[in-house]
Amino acid sequence: MSMKNLITIKLIGICLLSASILTSCKEKEKPVVESKICLSEKEVKELRPLSITNDTVVNTLRLNGVVAYNPNAVVSYVSLVGGVITNTYFTLGDNVSKNQVLAEIQSTELNGIEAELKQITANLEVAKRQLQATQGFYDDGIASEKELIAAKSEKESLEYDIEKLRTNLRLYSASQEKGVFQIKAPRSGFVVDNTISAGMQIGAEGDPLFTISDLDEVWINVNIYASDIAAVRENMPVSIKTSSYPDKVFTGKIDRISNVLEPEVNVLKGRIVLDNKDLFLKPGLHVEALVKNKSNQKAPHIPAKAVIFNNDAYFTVQLTDRCSPTVKPVQILSQDEDSFYIAAGLDEGDVIVTENALMLFESTSIIN
Q1: Global pTM value
Q2: Is the four-CA dihedral 276, 279, 284, 285 of positive or negative sign?
Q3: Where in this chain does the record put each CzcB-like barrel-sandwich hybrid domain (predicted)?
Q4: At the topology level of CATH, where does 61-71+216-294 sit?
């Protein structure tokens, strides 16, 4: 028979006994309610009794924050040429590789560069023939050394101009076969911002077309209110929780705290650096950062599941012996993620129930 069924059977007997008592006696208010449930040793063990000790109070401060990409690992792409976007090969949030083609631009600048390259290439052929002829004349004593040097200089100048144009074509990622400039990813990472689409007109060296960031490490920007400034310091470890992953806790540290309060909201901005190799945290995600501070105070420290909240008050179930589970009101000093520090109502050495406390509480409430 399960623990719950055993308690339930005993509870029925208690209810019958209580009913007969209540018919002959007036109900009296009692600050502490004691039941007469006698539990077996096995049942007591299943209640997971906890002997109270006084622990150092660790205060937990909760800071609201937003995930942001690390600006040191971000590249915003600005086009060096103007034109019309003819094709795009990515969407916001895509994971892209370095040199991957993301878009194509049709531009009159490409036509101009190709025409200039064609003209200079033709001029170079003429200059080569001119140099060859001048070299022959120089060897025969007809041309002067100055004329030979001038012919060589003309050829080298044209070769330089051609290489410069070809460098520009490589820089602009020109595809002469397709007649477009290709926009390639400057680094590997995730596209975290995008402002372009097919058919869009863009200018040379204008606003960024897209932004790529490495999300292996992210920043969390948190607000530190004026009343909490003394409790938060740089390099403090923090735990990060988000409703998107309720069962996960991420860990990091406070990397930097601003020295200037933002006047409109009266907060300091703090920055938390967080490892994100599993890519759970995305820019823009709202999170809660938990900062823990040890105090000089000691108090009873108990699991949250051992505390019952009822009628705007907190209670625990104390085990004096196997036949005397007792409901005792307690005052809360502070609350952690999964535990409470008790200001009053429990003393060191007291034994309380940490499993099925609510069931025992309800049974003693019926007697009351």
Answers
A1: 0.61
A2: negative
A3: 78-214
A4: Elongation Factor Tu (Ef-tu); domain 3 (2.40.30)
Give the CATH number of domain 80-213: 2.40.50.100
Contacts of 199 (CB under 8 A, 6+ apart): 84, 85, 86
Q: DSSP secondary-structure letter at 113?
A: H
Q: Out of 2.10.10.20, 3.40.50.10540, 2.40.420.20, 3.40.50.150, select the CATH number for domain 3-57+296-367.
A: 2.40.420.20
Q: Where are the beta strands (DSSP E) in 180-324?
A: 180-184, 189-194, 201-202, 210-213, 217-225, 237-241, 250-257, 267-275, 286-303, 308-310, 313-319
pLDDT at 36 over 60: no
Tell me the per-residue pLDDT of 165-208, one tens digit each, with 9 for 90 and over.
888 788 778 787 788 889 999 999 999 899 999 999 998 888 99
User: Residue 200: its pLDDT value, please?
Assistant: 93
